[in-house]
Amino acid sequence: MTVVEPRLTLERRLLKDYPLVIACDEVGRGALAGPVAVGAAVVDPALSRRRIPPGLRDSKLVPEPRRADVAARAASWVPHSAVGWASSVEIDEIGIMAALGLAAVRALADLRAHGVVPETAIVILDGNYDYITPAGAQGLRVTPVIKADRDCASAAAASVIAKVARDALMVTLHDDLPAYNWARNKGYASLDHREAISANGLSAHHRHSWAIANAPTLF
After folding, report:
1. Was 126 annotated as part of a binding site?
2. Which pLDDT does position 217 carry in this prediction?
3. Distance between CA 122 and CA 145 in Å, rounded?
4. Which of 1, 48, 109, 158 has the least C-beta neighbours within 10 A?
5. Is 9-168 CATH 2.60.120.560?
6. Is 93 annotated as a binding residue?
């Protein structure tokens, strides 16, 4: 299989019209337990002229043993990055798409706290649906881009930064509830996770509104 290397082609084109590009990507959408996270990475004109860190890819294409190193390089490469969160309780209360929007708004608020003004930027959002604007993000220009995490280096950076942060959180939660083996499955529908749910029921970190019993086993 040919692995597509992400580039800054789209970002450079957008920077002709905007002072900043912010790329956002989510992780954890399909998990049975744990929060959803949205990573955000900033590209400015100076960054657009720098080399892309070696090994930077969409987080799904980076082997797990290498992800932390790639995420650290990505975080050092961009001028600013952030991760926003929405809990499993919030997912149950407002639904997954609204929770993604909430997490994205929180990531953007984190960037704002560090001096970034999102309203001056254009936001690249991986996927084909803008879940940020309905979350109440006024004054933002959001452009969904299918496969942005594969093709755009900024979205790949946001993806791997968020993935490593969420995986680390799931390992912490595993220490409190080791029966579900979240250190391995990160809350996704693995066979061991499904068996643990059958044996122990749902924890406070599971998404109780989901039809977990009918969720397909992923690995």
Report:
1. yes
2. 65
3. 12
4. 1
5. no
6. no
